[in-house]
Amino acid sequence: MSMWKVFRSELLKMRKSSIWLLILISPVLSSLVGFGELNGSGEHTWITTLAIMSWLHGMLFLPLMTGVFSAFVCRFEHIEGGWKQLLAMPVSRTSVFLAKFLVVVLLLALSQALFLAGLLLVGNVKDLAGPVPWNEILTSITGGWLACMPLAALQMGVSTAWSSFAAPLAVNVIFTLPNILVSNSEKYGPFYPWAQPVLMMMPRLGDNFGAFNVSFETLIFVVFGSFLIFFLSGFAYFQRKEV
To answer: pTM above 0.85?
Structure first.
């Protein structure tokens, strides 16, 4: 069985689940924050609106949802010997791991697309001045998505190892909460996987502080290195996992 067949099988599992409703939570709440902060004053620009919405989305919900998605795609296999049933089929462990990871990547991409839609809705309803700064917005959206890759790889490894659905989520919540403190550190913030999404999404404004002063290029380098470490570690563990 090819990886793409496993991938389609994983999507079928997701089709009737509640995961699709969870994708809406962060974009909707971020949009409400965008509407609430602007207050029709006309003083905000597209970039400041992006910063306001990215703060909640990237600081809290995006890392939390990455953990939820990763735990969810492994949830079915932890029930009643699901791993044994799956791996007894003519499918390689490589295909299974990659297919599940791609599902998480897709769900994160959908979440970012909905966040973009919410930003455009807020901007148009509030009639923000000037043209839409597509370059800055798409850099933020894509950067936030890429910054989730190390965390998704880390959470996939944890979720395949622990049979409990709640345990990986609890760990993710515990490490997400310090984000606002860690992001104050220009030295340590860029290396903290749970803080990387908001650091990549926040536009570079003149009054940035802490890790938000780190350049986008440096963050990309750190994110790529973190992803390689976590993905290869999780992949190596899954290859040796006893079922």
So the answer is: yes
Best CA proximity match to 131, nearest among 206, 215, 47: 47
Which are the contacts of 161, defined by CB distance < 8 A and separation ≥ 6?
Answer: 237, 241
Spatial separation of the C-alpha atoms in residues 160 and 235, rounded to whole Å: 10
For the stretch 83-121, pLDDT in tens is 878 877 888 899 999 999 999 999 999 999 999 999 999
In the predicted model, what is the mean pLDDT of residues 190-194?
92
**How far apart (Å, rounded) are the C-alpha atoms in residues 160 and 230?**
13
Cα–Cα distance for residue pair 8/178, rounded to 1 Å: 36
Distance separating alpha carbons of residues 68 and 72, to the nearest angstrom: 6
Number of domains in the chain: 1
Residue-range definition of the domain harbouring residue 9: 3-240
